[in-house]
Structures
1.
Amino acid sequence: MSQKMISRRGALSLLGLTAALGFAVPTTALTTSNAQAQAQPTAPTPQAQPSGPTSTAPAMSGMERRQQRRAARQSAREMRREARRTARSMRREARQTAREMRREARQTSRRLRREARRGNGQLYMNAGGATKQK
């Protein structure tokens, strides 16, 4: 026997021909009556069921999945931004409150020292201790 080289085109056409003949199904097997089709149970096997929260959702195209992921990223980004803004405003309010408390404390102590210097009969606190002003 002589060996003959087969080209790629010939090999692919031979493969396609055998695949077409191998998968050919008679048309009588494909046609069933409505009663037979309804009578046959079509429950999927447990391995075929997708798990997770998407099991009740219909299958989405790639573009829909991409849009859904983008929307989820955008909402997460907005939530992070809002959390940062809220935290900033809370820190700002805390600084303002602390500043106002310090200011009030300074004003109160200043007022007490001033009254003590003017001789309203109150004790004036200095570094050496309590002394009465004249």
2.
Amino acid sequence: MLFDHCAECRRCCNVELGYSPLEITLTKAETRRHGRMCIVSDCESLGPNGCELGEAKPFSCKLYPLSYDPTGRRFYYDNECPLMPEYMRQLGDGKSEARAHVSAMFALIKELEVTEANFLKRNFAVDVDYFDLKELPSFDFRPGNNE
């Protein structure tokens, strides 16, 4: 499974010594649920098998290793994520985990563009500042397209 490697890698849930903390961008509903989330060294929600938040996992964490620029309406990815070569390979397969992930994120983003446009802008600004972003190749990420 594509994202099974994440529980082993844990790169996105850790901040190396000497780097500034990573403030997790939260929607209004997530802020009510979690308050504030900031990774100083290790994410407090990271267990031995990965994230322990389940469905309560913040959107910005669900989106990773992707990032979304709401102004340019483009997806980017963290170039340093070890998962990305396989993720990119799978994007060409309409039935893959990578395609399911990006399609689900696309659907959530469409909702957030209406309800929380400022959140999307804040989240992208944090991602640009923190990650080594590269533009994702163009696909029609709506479910059922580019298969």
3.
Amino acid sequence: MKAGHVTVLLQEAISALNIKPDGFYVDCTYGRGGHSKLILSRLGGEGRLLALDKDKYAVRHARQNIKDPRFNILCESFVNLPGVLGKNQVDGVLLDLGVSSPQLDDARRGFSFAKDGPLDMRMDQGSKPTAADWLNSAEQKEIADVLWQYGEERKSRTIAREIVKRREIKPFTSTLQLASCIRDISPKYTNKHPATRTFQAIRIFINQELAELKELLGKITDFLKIGARLVVISFHSLEDRIVKKALRAECQAQKLPKEIPLESKIICRLREILKIKASPEEINKNPRARSAIMRVAERQAQ
């Protein structure tokens, strides 16, 4: 694993999967393989692990670093998991959401406002558009809506107006160019850089992260065996809200007569059994873990 990359909630996530030695598991977000490697260490000779990642550099890392016949990785977004699995069901699925440390650390990827690089932000670099493509062509209202919806940026309209104004003079091409534009609007700040929410919003929008998460969670239960676990690690409230809502949707009360007891009216296909956050010790070692929330659900027999 690349130095500097620390997998968040590593032991907790793998423990929550409740690994069976002969089970079939899916790591939907390989990243740099921290979770995948630990899953493999818990599997027996008959166990299998399938990993997915739409970042070609992550897939290359996996193929160079994991030589194990029980392991396979595909360059695919997790939204395509139903098509990949077909009629197969699995014993556990792990989703570690958001941007990975290697993506943030590589200035050429354009995810970080702390380093100058091309304004790209694509996890799948074969997709379109780049962040620059979109930012230089979108309507002012669309930009403001994206910043508010995906970044909960209170100054979304002001930032969008300034972006449109500046791009007429010089199109946006670099991360520091965009970060500087936003910093000029909010020159006084303490801990959080004023571009944080804007970069988050554009990244989520460009990669359709929330839309893909909703789509997968709407189908995932059908691909889980009875007793199988779903483990989702999210890093901001927008993601966690989607996960929480999806789990609640799988536990709904039927419209049955009032005389039937409430517990008999509940259909629960996927029951949440655990929610945890990173420990103070982990946060001290890895500040990125501060915002992490892990939700664990188990496929029910109903």
4.
Amino acid sequence: MSDSNYSIILENKFDYKNTFYHCDPYLDIYNEEHINNYKDLDFIISSDVFEHINPYPGLQIAFNNMYKMLKTGGFIIFSVPYNEEEHIEHYPNLFEYTINKSDNDNDNDNYILFNKTIYGKTEVFDNLCFHEDPGSTLEMRIFSKKSITQYLLNSGFSDIIFHSINSDMKKYGIFWSKSCSYIITATK
């Protein structure tokens, strides 16, 4: 799931596809047809993806679909920004939305999110947080360690491990300096 860091190496060693939400090969984690195209997988790498997916129809559905894609004994290598305290959902009622550049000519990097909730209420948000280029990949949430664990458990995952930077990552040859986005593994 959009892991450009390792895809070339993995494609040479496995029957591996790096998927994308916006281009081919597509994978929308909420789309049942897409989920059915990727069944009985040995592993899934989801590197900083789930903080960007729409909260509608529900994050638990996204975790459940990831679980469905694996064969029994399959596993995930997963990372998302998270903190130890609380799960922060930036736009909990997001349904039909657009992101537009601000009309203020003096501020080229200012974007506005316009949302129409499922109940028809209009919401407007500014001070948006994008990963990578402004206007491209909107941060929808920051998970907590507790919320990630609960989503994974509710889906049926077991052997959930939050790998530490100092010991586990060096042991497995993973070098990740972001202390807010550790590598997590879990098994179906």
